[in-house]
């Protein structure tokens, strides 16, 4: 009796049909499709957190520098009349062929008073000079140097400077004095002057327009562009920006469509910093 029963049960055991397998596969695919946006959003939120930490550490370096230099911040990176918030000189020990504006001390290649990597690296120690690697806190996790034009990066190094993932908004007191016809900001009251102050913007995620390609560079959103590259032709994919203030605090500011329209149209209502024909922006 037992042998017969086992054979009877075995005869009724069958595998899945093709239709059933397709249904299971479809359910799994649907679940994955539902989870992917959440996973992507979690990954981006993690990168924003790292980015904010980077800015905080850079802010500590700047504040320490100011504390040791009569509460004065370093000057903006300059190349002739152009001021470049998203580019920094390498430093006095890594002098290049480009000549910064003379500081009046008889040394035309002196970059010691300008914002430079060597200056801040003395406080936070993140640069690998031997391999010419400027990473770590200097770049937002979304700002991968591997995506840059490597020939251009090599040329910039020869000139004695490099781009990084953020824009420096210190020493706008100098902007107002040097060349107000070419160097100006729409809202000086937003930005840092000689001394770090709470409530005034000191650094932020890059938001840059390059006239050569009509391309935009920003760190958070899709599609992203990179400094001096063939980025998107408008900033509407930008989701927002981390912003560092003079007291060392960092906050996230979401981008609205209205504000991005003002930025795209380069109006006087936008947080715009002009240096010649290349424009740096910030959210406000």
How would you describe the overall organization of this protein?
Helix 2 packs across helix 3 (117-124). By secondary structure, the protein is an alpha+beta fold. Helices cover 33% and strands 19% of the residues. The chain is elongated, with a radius of gyration of 26 Å. The protein contains 6 helices and 15 strands. The protein has helices at residues 2-12, 18-67, 117-124, 150-159, 172-178, 257-264, and strands at residues 78-79, 82-83, 87-89, 127-128, 133-134, 161-163, 166-168, 183-185, 201-205, 207-210, 215-218, 240-245, 250-254, 271-275, 278-282.
Q: In a nutshell, what does this entry contain?
A:
By secondary structure, the protein is an alpha+beta fold. The chain has six helices and 15 strands.
Radius of gyration, CA atoms, in whole angstroms: 26 Å
Terminal Cα span: 84 Å
Strand content: 15-25%
* Shape assignment: elongated
Mean pLDDT: 84
SSE pattern: HHEEEHEEHEEHEEEEEEHEE
Features of the shown structure:
alpha+beta, 6 helices, 15 strands, 19% strand, elongated
